[in-house]
Amino acid sequence: MKWFNSQSRLVQLILLLIPVVNWIVEIFVRVTAVLEKPNLGNLLGLIFGIIIPIFGWIDLVWVLLFNHLLLAK
Hints:
Layout: H1 2-6, H2 9-17, H3 19-36, H4 40-51, H5 55-66
């Protein structure tokens, strides 16, 4: 999660904009978030990220608005 948050906002948006890369980055960031801070929000984010592929598009909008992924602060 630190790696993703340390990237510029443009890089974050590009990574979340490309469909297959979006899902891979989503899973990678969610797993590292759970490993760094195992709480209910991060765990739910991981589950939603795996089960609901469109969750990455929601994260794209969330990063635009709040500069972090939904359920991973």
